[in-house]
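Quarterly update from the structural biology core.
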Amino acid sequence: MEAAARVVWPNKGVVELEEYDVGEPGDGEVIVETEYTLISPGTELAWLNALPNTPGRYPQHPGYNNVGRVGEVGPGVEGLTVGDRVVSPSAHSTRVRTNADRIMRVPEGVHGEVAVYFNMCSIALGAVRKAGIELGEAVVVLGQGIIGNLAMQLASLSGGFPTIAVDLLDERLALSQRCGADLCINPSKEDLVGTLRRALGREAVDVVFDATGAPQGINECFHLADYRGRVVLLASTRGITD
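Predicted structure, tokenized:
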């Protein structure tokens, strides 16, 4: 059996690469030869550094966005054959063994660099669906990392207008603008509420997503939400909100 390499966190703040034996696929399992694996920056950095609301136990083998080709098929697996391109919530590893029922096929013509975002898109889409956005409702997304950017795009596709991206990093906001945000605000450079008032004629919006994970952002969300507005905490909050 060919050895595989995977990312391991042996201790807090320590990242290493280790070899390990994937083993043979058991009943209902397949081996996937990884093509791409995507880092989830917010969650994985939080777990690596043992931030609040994380297990704080080591070693850990991170990763849950994996795309590759089926290399081996175990007994009892139906509908998958060697060579199929698939995604699975598997670790950062050159080869992974996983249950076949955790796998989804990659549609023909979808590049692996796009398919590897499947889990992040699923998380963002779940939040947008929970919000129940109606046509023409104003939407603010605090935090424009991967999840926040995807939520902004999906909110727009769901009828949100305008979609307002908020972040402290100009480079993230520049990407959000290219991805379709109607308004981008850096609150370290301009007053958030004042900008909303000038742009919308009011200070509050219909839907607010928090994709920052910062405890101080929770209160900001409720200040920004209009009467009968909705607030969705899309990120796992790392700490206590006063």
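The mean pLDDT is 95.
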